[in-house]
Amino acid sequence: MTPSISFIKNKYSSQLALFEKEFKRSTKTNVALLDTVMNYVIKRKGKQVRPLFVLLSANLFGAVNTKTYRAAAMVELLHTATLAHDDVVDNAYKRRGFFSINALWKNKIAVLVGDYLLSRGLLLAVENKDFDLLEIMSSSVKAMSEGELLQLEKARRLDITEEVYFNIILGKTASLIASCCALGAASIQNDQKVIDDLYNFGIKVGLAFQIKDDIFDYGKQDIGKPLSIDIKEKKMTLPLIHTLGKCNKVERREIIKIFKNDNISRAHIDFIVDKVNQFGGISYAQEKMNLLIAEAKEIIQPYIKTEDHKDLITLIDFVVDRVK
Fold first, then answer.
1. How many H helices and E strands in the chain?
2. For the chain: N or C, fewer Cβ within 10 A?
3. Can you tell me the distance from the alpha carbon of 24 to that of 19, in angstroms, rounded to the nearest whole number?
4. In the prediction, which pLDDT does 93 show?
5. Can you give the pLDDT at residue 53?
6. How many domains does the chain have?
7. How far is CA 195 from CA 57, 105, 176, 199, in A?
8. Would you say 314 and 300 are in contact if contact means Cβ atoms under 8 Å apart?
9. Domain of 288?
């Protein structure tokens, strides 16, 4: 049985505490409203998967240091910024079971808070002359923006192929996980091949992470966002793309018609979910996800030298085994 994320967090609690100290220090401001919002965000932190990827990737190459903690803080600043912006774009009023920033302080403040967090993440590298970390993180910001915009563009035209889907999630999700792993490695040593290997490892894990998230949309688990939200937002994810390629013309036309409808009803959602299950969309996505994890493990295996190094494997197993 794969240990839970709580097992990993408990084992690395001292490192996570130092990361959190760096993160809180980075968000400190003289603007009272901003401080209030940041205190709200910090108290409702998630599973800290991304900082853990930084820390465990660094652990492969030596003892973590202050640069590692800065890298983890940079990642969390960027990730939190994207969540603030995403909730505005998606008109989402709940995040991890709590009210989102835009629900409590409206869109304008949520966007500005997101901008602030992004700038703090980049400045954290500049202030400490971590220009190698800055390059990795800036590339991730670019890729994430491109991925989100590509998804919006294709959502309008409903012409997303499997190849386009992977290009989208490569940018919007996988690039950040890849940056976490590359940042962890770069914080300890400067061998570019090693950093590239960790980046490619993170890409595989990140793609699998997003596929798992997309599969949740067709399930009945409470994952902190409304079920079927991807359908309501007209996002073509892997289970549905596979289904569209397998169903007949009449069924395909009906699904596309639903997606073009501005008012997608519960009956519409149930129809799509039934078709996805009927044509094996979920099992197909799971197969792709498992293949990506296997490829990720193959990349990282040469760097697994001790029992503690295996915690990184445990973390990526959590990515595909998690139920929430």
1. 16, 2
2. N
3. 9
4. 65
5. 95
6. 1
7. 10, 40, 14, 6
8. no
9. 13-321
